[in-house]
Amino acid sequence: MPAARPSLEATRVGLPPGLGSVLDAFETHLSAERNLSVHSVRAYVGDVTGMLDHAARRGATVPDDVDLATLRSWLAKLRTSGRARATLARRASAVRTFTGFAVRRGLMTADPGAALATLKGHRTLPDVLSTDQMDLVLAPTPPLTDDPAAAAMAARDTAVLELLYATGIRVSELCGLDLVDIDESRRVVRVLGKGAKERSVPYGVPAERALRAWLARRDTVAVDATSSAVFVGRRGRRIDPRTARGIVYARTTLAGGKDRVGPHGLRHSAATHLLEGGADLRTVQELLGHATLATTQIYTHVSVERLKATYDQAHPRA
Questions:
Q1: For the chain: N or C, fewer Cβ within 10 A?
Q2: Known catalytic residue: 83?
């Protein structure tokens, strides 16, 4: 049997002290200064740990021993092991971030990552629901019993779906909402996005109605310990992303037969429908909380593909 691969933590512990110390500083920078989520920090640190382990096996003991040849050989090794192009692009980006940080802090004298070619992954167009399918998804489903808790959960589920689609916010942003984040008079919700960046997103009349219906029933299940949370479960505690995904999966499957269209699918759908309705790219970028316009541009491709599909189906000379 082949030897078991060492864990990420074991690999990190085995790094030479000169490499381990700069990795520790990088992790602190990501979490304390850039305020990235735990998952993002883990991903960055994991990618850089793999690169530093490769460098150490080539004889590197201090950050300046990591040169462009080391980075290229590391990526080549990953490619020959069958890593996807998108994975290589992500890891190269993580390393560029790391070497740039090390140079700015004076931990490296030169930045080999700056000369590393940018790999472009093959971007898969996101699944989106049509407006007709969204109408089915958002149709209220009254409970089959007169149980107040069941009625509250039905109202909550509709409000979750309406707000996700109306605003295009992320599922983590939805679950983190507090009552003070909702400005009912202006129909605006305040969310805390990636990197602890705050933004305000408007929502429409249908979402307003759904929110009011839910908030009118919320106190039947809410408990004092989580009285600030907008969305709670049967036991009165703040819902988590897993619960929100279950709500969306159940409704989208019933409505359109789409398999595994979750909260991010509603985010994709909202962005696509906004662009198809005439919204400009910058506005959609602000609404979604994207750091760069390039991230938002994928939705223009979605709209083109939908336009082509409609043309092929309807035009007599398609």
A1: N
A2: no
